[in-house]
Amino acid sequence: MDEGIIAMLVMPLVIFMIFVAPIWLILHYRSKKQVNQGLTVEERASLEALAGQAEKMTERIQTLEAILDSEAPQWRNRA
Length: 79
Hints:
Blueprint: H1 3-37, H2 41-71
């Protein structure tokens, strides 16, 4: 093989190994560490608040559907 072709193949690999691979590894293991730590207190509180809001919305939707069922029984068939 020609030395120019070998250099064209080796240079991108060297650049990848020097610059991209270390950054990639650092970011990968940093994200793994964050996942393993679990939720923070703020994240857990936010998640519980959102779950509470979702329950309230579910109850409201069920109430609205019950009202619509009694006042306009065919509302579900409308497009």
